[in-house]
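Entry: Signal transduction histidine kinase internal region domain-containing protein
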Amino acid sequence: MKNRDIVFGHVIAWLVYILYEVSSVALTAGLHGPLYHFPVYYCCYIGLFYFNAHVVLDFAFFKTGRPYMVSGGLIAAEILLFFIIKAGLDLVMPGVTKSPEALLAKPYLLSNLFREVFFIGFSIAYWSMLGMVRFKERNHQMEREQLKNMASTLELKNRYVSVENAFLQTQISPHLLFNSLSFIYTSVRRLSDQAGNGVLLLSDLMRYSLVTGKDAESVLLSREVEQIWNLISLSRLRMEEHFYLQFKRKGRLAGKKIIPLLLITLVENAIKHGELDDRKVPVRISLSVEGDQLLFLTSNKIRESSPYKKGGLGLDNLQKRLANAYPGRFAFKFGKREGLFIVSLKITL
């Protein structure tokens, strides 16, 4: 069932992308050639996407000793082979007026090269995210099993807390992923500033969540608030005008530090499970700092139907991190009241 859901998600994602791209081309430049050309060419590009990820990159990084050198050579060969296939299709497909001489013209070469690099860039980002998820799951599972087998000593308890916090903070820094996102941002921004800004916000959020806390147990409160704004801006891009959220803050943030991914987890929870399109009952978020006292509140109207599971795992994990970082110095409450889900967090910094 899980594999079926993944395949279905891929199909939906490709249909949305193709519909968006074809619509954009139709509105700006007009469609040229028979409609049956589109499924043929898109099948080729989708095949290039998955072939690069699951054949070329898997082979280079998992079967060879010099993955970067091998992957670079294979990708270059892949680009050349795909160009030959695409040129052959252009020659034999009815309605495509391409002579052999036109296939060697500079505009044709550059446009096809850009198109291939565009899909290969997306493929690299997709493969990087898959690898990152697999590595995190495997590493976390191994650490948990090892530590649970030694649960009789105090030393084990401390090590278990450290590993669990490290997993919750996701301390992996996939440079290939961020380089790919930079490439995608540059390419997508040519088509849509809004989509480009969304990629940029997502990249900053992912970098913060993956890198923050790698060498320190705390971050500046101002940096955490900056990422809250990024998350709100990204959600606003997704929801467009049907997005009602209020974020208020009071007090001086300068010099204050907290454990990373603390407040942003609560904001993510409110956005994920809250009713965002009700103007009368918007999501409310407030941050107040007075001296060494931090008060953070979220309130959201409970969504009647949500695609996300409501297991409370994120809030339970957050409570564990608070107990580890601020023993006896925090108050954390959450629950339902009059159709709202309310979270209250008070910390002595």
